[in-house]
Design goal:
- By secondary structure, the chain is an alpha/beta fold.
- Helices cover 26% and strands 28% of the residues.
- It is built from five helices and eight strands, in the order E-H-E-H-E-E-E-H-E-H-H-E-E.
- Strands 2-3-6-7 form a four-stranded parallel beta sheet. It has a two-stranded antiparallel ribbon with strand order 1-8.
- Helix 2 runs parallel beside helix 3.
- The longest helix is centred in the N-terminal third of the chain and has 9 residues.
Length: 137
């Protein structure tokens, strides 16, 4: 396993084209980099662990006296462009296993009904990938 500080190293350098598995924190990666990884330059990855960029916000749900402890609701919003790119993984034609970390229920439903589900085994894991370096094998 090799470690890198940024997925840009993998997407920019053709010598990484033979890497078989990649773990990417989509919430820590620049948009141009994950777009290239998922939609741009073709790569031979067979397994991808991807942590979606999900924003969590607390909403008072109409109760101006509510606090996160006493009421209201937590809402989640997935980066729509990132989810759409992940749903096709057009630049990853050899992809056979996709492990998605931290996806809310609506994102899971969209991915299960997407083109990627027809060619790859999908697994959904609660929580995000650990912060830090990419794990590449």
């Amino acid at each position: 396993m090799r470690l890198r500080d940024d997925v840009a190293t993998v997407t920019a350098d053709p010598s990484w084209a033979t890497v078989d598995e990649l773990q990417v924190c989509g919430y820590r990666t620049r948009a141009d980099v994950w777009r290239d990884l998922l939609l741009g330059t073709p790569r031979a990855f067979r397994r991808l662990h991807f942590a979606l960029h999900v924003d969590e916000d607390w909403d008072q749900d109409g109760d101006i006296t509510a606090t996160p402890q006493s009421g209201g609701v937590w809402t989640t919003t997935v980066d729509a462009a990132q989810l759409a790119a992940l749903a096709t993984c057009a630049a990853l034609p050899a992809l056979r296993t996709l492990v998605v970390h931290g996806a809310p229920a609506d994102a899971i439903a969209r991915l299960r009904a997407s083109p990627i589900a027809a060619r790859a085994t999908l697994t959904f894991v609660d929580g995000q990938l650990p912060a830090g370096k990419l794990a590449i094998s």
